[in-house]
Write a sequence for this structure.
């Protein structure tokens, strides 16, 4: 008895709490982020802000940037220069976006969904907004345009901080791991994308187009976008539903009208003829008389001659041989007839 009473009291308390809590609207989708992902996002954001602050105050990180620039890696290892000129293309936005979009487009067609392409478009849009705003806001000059040795080169109209090549490599190739269908494929693709992005960032430092701190901030910027994508999943789902609805309306508007079903025809019962009923059939008239009667019905009133009595007349005269009672006796000549009627 006591156990039942205690259980009843606990259930009453739970129901009372549920009644006091406000209900969430059904149409709002609350994104779910794992605790591990939230921790990674927070740590990456802190690292991003720390890099920016270290460059702004011209700390040891800026001095390291100048030391690497004076080291000139492209002169230390010139034998790999040609290869790295092609390898850095893996961080350019145009070629990488085309390659990844082709693969994700094929997946979308096979799976009958737009989520892969919409996720890629969302990530690239976030990349352009966040990285582009940071580049224009901080305005740092690159190593080839540096003016004062030891300076952070901030606010001088540059656009290389953070590194766009590095951030694009992280996002574009990381999308393949984010959209992987199995955990094993996700692990392999994550490792491959990380190595590719790491190589692209170091390649820009080797070529002298970016400071080392630019590459560090580019890695952090790309990783922040990948970690924040689950928050945009409800928006992606709504966009996919809207596009499919638009496609269905377009098909319904341009499709051919469906033909109406045929009306069933009632069979007609034919009555038996007189011959089938046993009655004698009336005698038919001869065909000649019928034709003659039909022909006379269409003739105009007046005397007419039959076809056998008509003589075809041509410009050269009659082609019918002379009649028997009009023959000319031998030894006489028939007067010539005029060619034209008089």
């Amino acid at each position: 008895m006591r156990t039942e009473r205690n259980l009843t009291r606990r259930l009453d308390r739970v129901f009372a709490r549920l009644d006091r809590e406000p209900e969430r609207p059904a149409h709002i989708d609350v994104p779910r982020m794992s605790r591990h992902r939230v921790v990674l996002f927070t740590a990456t954001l802190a690292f991003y802000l720390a890099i920016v602050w270290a460059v702004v105050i011209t700390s040891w990180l800026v001095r390291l940037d100048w030391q690497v620039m004076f080291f000139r890696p492209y002169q230390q290892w010139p034998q790999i220069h040609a290869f790295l000129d092609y390898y850095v293309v893996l961080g350019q936005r145009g070629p990488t976006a085309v390659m990844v979009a082709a693969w994700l487009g094929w997946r979308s067609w096979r799976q009958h969904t737009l989520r892969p392409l919409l996720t890629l478009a969302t990530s690239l849009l976030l990349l352009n907004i966040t990285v582009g705003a940071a580049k224009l806001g901080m305005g740092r000059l690159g190593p080839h345009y540096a003016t004062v040795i030891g300076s952070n080169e901030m606010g001088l109209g540059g656009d290389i901080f953070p590194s766009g090549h590095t951030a694009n490599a992280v996002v574009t190739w990381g999308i393949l791991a984010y959209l992987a269908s199995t955990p094993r494929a996700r692990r392999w693709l994550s490792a491959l994308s990380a190595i590719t992005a790491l190589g692209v960032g170091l390649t820009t430092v080797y070529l002298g187009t970016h400071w080392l701190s630019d590459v560090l901030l580019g890695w952090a910027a790309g990783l922040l976008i990948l970690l924040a994508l689950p928050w945009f999943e409800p928006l992606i789902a709504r966009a996919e539903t809207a596009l499919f609805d638009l496609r269905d309306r377009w098909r319904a508007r341009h499709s051919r009208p469906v033909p109406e079903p045929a009306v069933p025809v009632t069979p007609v019962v034919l009555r038996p003829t007189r011959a089938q009923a046993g009655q004698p059939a009336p005698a038919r008239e001869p065909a000649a008389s019928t034709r003659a009667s039909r022909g006379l019905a269409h003739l105009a009133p007046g005397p007419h001659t039959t076809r056998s009595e008509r003589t075809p007349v041509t410009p050269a005269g009659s082609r019918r041989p002379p009649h028997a009672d009009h023959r000319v006796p031998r030894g006489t000549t028939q007067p010539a007839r005029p060619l034209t009627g008089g």
